[in-house]
Amino acid sequence: MDNKFTNTRLLDKYIINANNINIDIEILSKEEKSVPIYIVSITNISDTTKIVLEKIREEFISKLGIEELEHSKEDIDNLRIKFTHSITKLIDKYFPQSDEKTKATLINYLLEENLGLGKIEILLKDSNLEEVVINNHSEPVWVYHKKFGWLETNIKMHTEARIRHYATMIGRDVNKEITMLNPLMDAHLLNGDRVNATLVPISTKGNTITIRRFAEDPWTITKFIEGGTISISAAALIWLGIQNELSMMIAGGTGSGKTSMLNVITNFFPPNQRIISIEDTRELQLPKDLHWVPMETRLPNPEGKGGVTMLDLLVNSLRMRPDRIVVGEIRRKEEAQVLMEAMHTGHSVYATIHANNAEETITRLTNPPIEIPKPMLASLSLILVQNRNRRTGKRRTLQIAEVDSKGDARILMQLNAQKDVLEKVEESENLIKTISLYTGMSKEQIVADLKQKQAILSWMLRNNIHDINQIGSIMAKYYTGRLKINM
Questions:
Q1: Is the pTM for the entire model greater than 0.70?
Q2: Which of 65, 107, 246, 407 has the CA that lies 20 to 30 A from 164?
Q3: Model confidence over 107-142: pLDDT tens digits?
Q4: Contact, 281 vs 188, CB < 8 A?
Q5: Is the Cβ–Cβ distance between 334 and 370 less than 8 Å?
């Protein structure tokens, strides 16, 4: 479909609602632009009204003072109640003929501009976005769209002071602060979105804010299969390993989908086992019927006290009688040692690590700074590698490998990038041997079990079962022998 401009093409269009304000979203491809443009249009507030609202906002801020707003000790709900009263007076002054619904819309708009993140709040209401990025006030805000990758928006910050104000407000809500003495901040919004902020002169072009969205509708195995991230046969192989309590490491580069895949494989956990998850920032979402205890690290306070590290939580988790331990990311030797010890003592462990392929995963684990003795890796059964093609934005499972008794990786499945297909490379040896040892199943029985799992996954796809709790319910019925489906 062609837009009214001959060099412009409409890629997508949809409507979102932010605090009773209707927002039109258009994604346009323009010849003169190297990336598509994400256009935000507020449909039920006219341009003239916006000009008046900006005047009201300036009058409100001049009376209050931005410093008082940033350093107020009141929580956000109390501030909203307090400022709603003040803003309502100004709305009555400038829009005396407005009905109650229109007033409520205008008040919400002004509250978000002053107490929230302004137009950034609009972007955070779009479930299609994974990242929202402010680089400085002279460039447009950028977003990472699930379907179209990086997009330039038609939203700009007016000043560097406004960016800093937003960073300060975010930090204030979670008892963090960003100042010239502490110009870096890692925090998260109350809804779980992760936020990183930096100030000039640390970021030389301007103040920055990077927001990584917390998925409201988490990735599931059927979504991954349907989107081409992984094949049905590969998913069945992972399910087989998880059912038989084999430990797994998920590797990949930044933004490759490691944490999403970690979340996806938990779809296969049985309901009668205790699961402990450990993360720096809470991102995992498991089916509601699982016996799951999520835990999160904590940074020390400005005096250097009160910090809780991943190592602290790992050691503590072993005293909580876990059947499965899920770890956000392994970075240090001590953490890896505790995980390996957990594997050797009979716990099933699942974690992510930064590495680009299976061989590099072994290298990272056995060399500084992690430096695990290679023979210890035999307790790690599977390595799953995620990859993101930065040109196309596609996330794919690159490799699935088993780990042999010497601690070496043996590739079982590998992505054929040209065909965009995950292909079988080798027959499993160690995996089949381990499952046979502990279950007594023959190779033929294991192959039949894999086929049954593929059939169940295919049935779930045919029936559009994508919800995490629906999948959790199906898995519970499968493990208890109550699953009755027409395959």
A1: yes
A2: 107
A3: 777 766 666 687 898 899 999 999 999 999 999 999
A4: yes
A5: no
